[in-house]
């Protein structure tokens, strides 16, 4: 999915630096995993990964791509049709076809994020067409029912949720982020919701299992103990992620306790999801705390030259925390993230920004 700060394009650069500081794969912690692009790449290189993030849809993606080592099969009894009764197991693709074919439901997404619902219509919210909203509701409520009845284990449930989040994102009537919706249906939004199979990253022979975590980075780094590599990719500006991705967050978290939405775009309550990294007065302390709590041989931090923390401040914190002479910074220039909605009239002072990778070896 398109994601602010997604490192997919920078993965080769990050892996090069990782390969320089520790050629043999070990244990890595990626506590700001987002789409799990870096966790996935590390696992693919043979690393055991402990990933984490504050957001529920990131957790689902981490389970799908990092925690699971292969595509799971599903109990045939879930769908209980003739084919299901004959066999014990059901393939993922067969289950996706079943979920796609469910009759639409008028659930939380239809009610709030599409014109089919009263709240959605009152605010003119057009995140999904009524058909797609009904299909998302049907699939999500079915996954929730299977989980509540304990017919689906947590990892399989997250795997299906991740599949649904990705599918919903492809038909969302946005320009890339959910901070606003477009006021006419875009071509992608008019397409029918399609659940496309995801592919977990295989574990290397003899490798240890990787794991996903839902919660604060500070908690994860403290709980994982000693690791070889701590890869940090925190937010670098004041944009709090839940305000830009509240709709996938609702789809992932579900609505067994329906969130109270606010504002034109139906934002979710986000006090618990707000990040100190997005606060100028708190981000330096957040960096110090995190490094303090971690026990990592190598620390890498992805940051940006337009970020709240000055490069010199990061360098000073790193030098204090590790072997002073080992501190290095590698920079790479890349094109600024633009959403489709920026249009040609949206001007930025600079079209290119610099991604920085700060490194220090712990003493
Ligand atoms: C720059 S993005 C990470 C992008 C990721 N590397 C990728 O390639 O998709 C920052 C992430 O940090 C998460 N985040 C912000 N504050 C956090 C905190 N205190 N603990 C854990 N995750 C946090 C956000 O939800 C967001 O997904």
Describe this structure in words.
The chain is 38% helix and 13% strand. It has 363 residues and is of the alpha/beta class. The chain folds into two domains: 1-69 and 209-240 and 276-363, Vaccinia Virus protein VP39 (Rossmann fold, 3-Layer(aba) Sandwich), CATH 3.40.50.150; 71-199 and 243-274, no CATH class. Strand 1 (27-30), helix 2 (37-44) and strand 2 form a beta-alpha-beta unit. The structure holds S-adenosylmethionine (SAM). S-adenosylmethionine binds at residues 3, 5-7, 31-35, 37-38, 53-55, 58, 216-217, 233-235, 241, 275, 277. S-adenosylmethionine (SAM) binds next to helix 2.
What's the assembly state of these chains? Answer: single chain
Tell me the fraction of residues in β-strands, as a range: 5-15%
Structural class: alpha/beta
Q: Which CATH class of the largest domain?
A: Alpha Beta
Strand sequence of the main sheet, in spatial order? 2-1-5-6-8-7
Average per-residue pLDDT, rounded, comes to 94
Radius of gyration: 21 Å
Give a summary of the structure in a few sentences:
With 363 residues, this protein is an alpha/beta fold. It has helices at 11-21, 37-44, 56-67, 82-86, 92-100, 108-113, 118-122, 130-148, 154-170, 187-190, 217-224, 241-244, 246-253, 283-293, 311-321, and strands spanning 27-30, 48-51, 74-75, 89-90, 226-232, 295-304, 328-335, 352-361. The chain has two domains: 1-69 and 209-240 and 276-363, 3-Layer(aba) Sandwich (Rossmann fold), CATH 3.40.50.150; 71-199 and 243-274, no CATH class.
């Amino acid at each position: 999915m398109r994601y602010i700060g997604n490192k997919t394009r920078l993965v080769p650069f990050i892996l090069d630096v990782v390969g320089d500081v520790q050629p043999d794969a070990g244990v890595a912690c990626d506590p700001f995993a987002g789409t799990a692009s870096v966790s996935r790449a590390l696992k693919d290189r043979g690393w055991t990964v402990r990933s984490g993030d504050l957001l529920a849809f990131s957790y689902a993606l981490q389970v799908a791509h990092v925690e699971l080592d292969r595509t799971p099969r599903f109990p045939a009894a879930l769908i209980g049709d003739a084919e299901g009764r004959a066999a014990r197991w059901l393939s993922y693709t067969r289950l996706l076809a079943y979920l796609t074919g469910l009759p639409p439901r008028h659930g939380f997404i239809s009610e709030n994020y599409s014109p089919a619902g009263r709240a959605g219509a009152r605010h003119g919210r057009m995140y999904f067409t009524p058909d797609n909203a009904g299909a998302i509701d049907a699939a999500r409520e079915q996954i929730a029912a299977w989980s509540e009845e304990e017919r689906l284990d947590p990892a399989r449930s997250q795997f299906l949720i991740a599949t649904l989040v990705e599918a919903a994102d492809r038909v969302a009537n946005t320009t890339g982020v959910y901070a606003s919706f477009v006021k006419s249906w875009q071509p992608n939004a008019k397409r029918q919701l399609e659940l496309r199979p995801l592919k977990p990253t295989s574990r290397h022979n003899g490798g240890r299992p990787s794991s996903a975590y839902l919660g604060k980075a500070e908690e994860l780094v403290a709980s994982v103990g000693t690791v070889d590599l701590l890869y940090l990719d925190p937010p670098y500006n004041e944009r709090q992620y839940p305000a830009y991705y509240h709709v996938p967050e609702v789809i992932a978290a579900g609505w067994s306790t329906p969130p109270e939405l606010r504002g034109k775009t139906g934002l979710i309550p986000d006090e618990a999801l707000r990040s100190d990294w997005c606060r100028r007065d708190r981000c330096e302390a957040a960096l110090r705390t995190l490094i303090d709590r971690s026990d990592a041989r190598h620390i890498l931090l992805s940051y940006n030259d337009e970020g709240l923390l000055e490069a010199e401040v990061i360098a000073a914190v790193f030098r204090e925390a590790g072997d002073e002479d080992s501190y290095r910074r590698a920079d790479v220039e890349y094109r600024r993230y633009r959403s489709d909605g920026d249009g040609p009239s949206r001007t930025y002072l600079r079209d290119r920004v610099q991604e920085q990778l700060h490194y220090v070896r712990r003493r």
